[in-house]
Amino acid sequence: MNLKTAILALSLLWACSLRGQTPVTLTFGDPGRSGIPIVNLTMADRSNRISSAAGTIVPTYTNVPDSMKVCIAAVLDIWESLLKNDEPIYLEFQYGEPMESSANDIEVVVQYLPSSDYYLPTSLYFNTVRKRTDTEVYPDATIRINPNLTWSCMLSATVPNAPNFPYSIMRAIPISLGFGSSLSLKQISSGDIITFGFSDGYTIFDSLIFNEQGTRLTSIPNIGKRQNTALEDFALNSANIYAKTQDADHHLYQSDPFIPYVSLIYLDNPASLMHYEKIDGSQNLQVDDVTKELLQAIGWTFRENYQIYIYGEGLDGNGYASAYEAHTFGLTNLTGKTITNPSWSLSLPLTENTSATVIQSSGSLTFTVPAISNPSQYYRNINGDVYATIKFTGIIDGEEVSATYRMSYRLEPMIKSVDNIVKEIVSDRLYNVYFTVEYVGSDHLKVGFGQPNSSVIVNSFVYESYLAHCCLTNLSRAYEATVYIAASNEYGTVEYEFELPSYVQTHIGNLSEDYTVINQALYDLKGRLIWQSSDFLSLSPLPQGVYVLRSEYKSGKITSKKIDL
Predict the structure, then answer these.
(1) DSSP-derived secondary structure letter, 147
(2) What pTM, to 2 d.p., does this model score?
(3) Residue 18's pLDDT band (cuts 50, 70, 90)
(4) Does residue 195 have a pLDDT over 90?
(5) Torsion of CA 39, 44, 46, 48, to 10 degrees
């Protein structure tokens, strides 16, 4: 175990001990094979890859090349569009880290926690049993990538004789979510034995497994890491073993001898993403129905948008919409049956955790919402958007059906604050100024300054979202400066500016005495003295607001000016 792995393990133990539970791990693998298949990958169209109500998977990376990160992002986009998870799923991707077996293309180390009946993968546990605490934000699974292979990172077209990376990651995600039995081989003095993954229980996926004779895997006593003849008989001598449903589509791969990382983990179903061998020929980067069905059986919820779903006219699958325009929504009904009693509602967030229904309509299969009349009263998320929830309910054959659509109302950007203004002397004539800008609705800022001694405004761009750390360089200490800040998106530009007084401590070179400051004082608008010094650099950051700066120059000149900090 390397130092990084040891530190991660200790942090996990510490975090979960606060809740009285310690996560335990199982390692799964996706072995390579001789004669690497040629896979002709095709990407599903955009409407099947993204969703207006996507779940959240948060990746972290250790030494992963950029080309692989692009593939991972594309694969996570597909899975996010399917999963309905309120708690984020945290996945760590490692390249070049130690693996249990060099024969594996991919290894997946999955964290589990015990629930009332079975061990659940932590990604599922925190979406069904309880919410995470702040100390429990750790990788739900670590996906290790074999660095000794020549990977193909192509997302489409014919792949040469090399393992296809996005195809392999597509197969690793369901393993991360709990797909596959816990059975594995353990070494004892007399040889290898088949055991359960945990000595004191079964995983939720184990509970789906049964043989043709009706014996369920979880009916076999778990006697720990000792030889278990009943378990070996089940795994090696059962005529057929299934997951959830007794048919060919749900047939699990079996072998004698037992093959670690493969037997009773993958399916013996060539039409499935989770077939025990990577399939030659054309493969679509989509999730098949059997894989989704088995993940649903262990507790995952998928977005039910295949029979009835809401679409926004002129809106893409991300659900982005202008808050300044009206929008019309309709239904795609794939059932072929009549919907009666249609009803619609629009809800908008008042705070981060509360919302209010602002519009309701019934009697029509379309729904039009006007532009937001006062967007400032609604909560804006970290992206600067207002999330609106469109909900439809209706009746088909006497049963209620429903669908939801999350619309991201886009607004012009907002500059929320400018703080932590600090000056740095560069020379006896020049200084730099640093400040932070909190803003939303854009992914970059335009910042600049102008001074009376120059007709040119010096501009630069800061590509740091949400909280930008800005620096303007080489301002003349002899002149006041106006700092300009602008944030833009497709819906408009907002601007902010503040004044910096001239900054001269002592007589500098041959500068006019009219620009040599010997004393400065800062007052609030009620005339109360806030600060006084001959050195403006000593001014500590102040709350945002308007102040009056009084400057006394060596020439005897005195000026007063309002400044906006």
Answers:
(1) T
(2) 0.57
(3) very low
(4) yes
(5) -140
Cα–Cα distance for residue pair 421/469, rounded to 1 Å: 10
132 secondary structure, DSSP code: P
Closest CA to 380 of 419, 411, 418: 411
Q: Kindly report the backbone phi and psi dihedral angles of residue 380, in degrees, each rounded to the nearest multiple of 5, phi listed first.
A: -105, 130
Residue count of the chain = 565
Q: Which of 237-241, 386-390, 482-486 has the lowest mean pLDDT?
A: 386-390
Q: What is the C-alpha end-to-end distance of the chain, expressed in Å?
A: 53
pLDDT given for residue 360 in this prediction? 92
Q: Cα–Cα–Cα angle for 385, 387, 389, nearest 5°? A: 160
Q: Assess whether the previous peptide bond of 257 is cis (omega < 30° from 0).
A: yes
**Sequence-distant (≥ 6) Cβ neighbours of residue 223 within 8 angstroms:** none
Cα separation of 183 and 357, whole Å?
49
The SS3 call for residue 174 is helix
Instruction: State residue 187's pLDDT score.
Output: 83
35 DSSP 8-state letter: S
pLDDT tens for 212-262 read 999 999 999 999 888 899 999 999 999 999 999 999 999 999 998 999 999
Return left, alpha or beta for 143; rule: phi > 0 is left, psi -120 to 50 is alpha, else beta: beta
Cβ distance 378 to 388 under 8 Å? no
Q: How far apart are CA 406 and CA 284, in angstroms?
A: 27
